[in-house]
Every structure is written in C-alpha cells, then in structure tokens.
Amino acid sequence: MQGLAMKGLTVAVFFWTLISPSSGSKAWPTHTVCRNGNLEVLYQSCDPLQDFGFSVDQCSKHLKSNLNIRFGLILREDIKELFLDIALFTKGSSILNFSYPICEEDLPKFSFCGRRKGEQIYYAGPINNPGFEILPCLNQSWLLGDAC
Fold first, then answer.
1. Buried/exposed 6-23: b ≥16 CB within 10 Å, e otherwise
2. pLDDT tier, 37 (very low <50, low <70, confident <90, very high otherwise)
3. How far apart are CA 71 and CA 69, in angstroms?
4. Reduced to 3 states, what is the DSSP secondary structure of residue 70?
5. For the chain, which has fewer Cβ within 10 Å, the N-terminal or C-terminal residue?
C-alpha cells in the first residue's frame, strides 16, 4: 500500500511540474537594462540556457555618443556566429526591428568572436554609439517596409 501511495505522489508531483507556471512553457526571464522616468529598457535572451547580464549606466531617450555599459556571460557554446536582434516596442506595439551581425566566421568584428565553450566574457566601460538614432527612424518610410 505504501508503494502505491508513493507512486501516486510521484505522479502528482510530475503532473504539477508540467502544468505549473514555472514549467518549461514559461517565457524567458526579462531583465532591466536601465530605468529613468518614463523610459524602461528591458531584454530577454533568445536561449533559455544561455542567460547574460547587460546594463547601461545612463538611461536616456536620446542615445549619447559614448555609453558606459556592463556585459557578462559564461559561454555554453563556442562563438562561431552571433547576431544582435533588437525589437523596439512602445505600448505593446512593435515600432522597430533591427538585426546586426556581430560575429561571422569569415569576418569577426570583436575580440570575443571565436571564444570557446566555458570561457567567461565580461566588459565594463565605454562604447561608441555608431550613429544609430532611434527618433529619425520613426519618421522615415521604414514603417512601410524599408530598413532604417
């Protein structure tokens, strides 16, 4: 009788694990990059097993020429190719999608391209804004399909 009760408990715990909010169907964690007044910048990793930390010191609607950032992760896989995909939302609606190749096998752009599984990547310091401006893009025809 005790064995049957234990099996029933095991099945109940397994079933609860499948249907509970913390099961695999839950969205990946959302992290805050910065927060300032009405502006809040959030991010999610596209890989639930490869989370990373990222923050910006100054949070402003206007991108400054130099930003102080912090970024860190431990690699779960070798970096052969890496792309940055950005989706900008306001009030639940997507207003900008941007994709940029960071690491390509034949064209590494950064020193961490080619790093191996298990290595740690950490950077804290300034980065230069390459001239990308959000507000002028919102007034251009990219909303009809053209890239900004």
1. eeeeeeeeeeeeeeeeee
2. confident
3. 7
4. strand
5. N
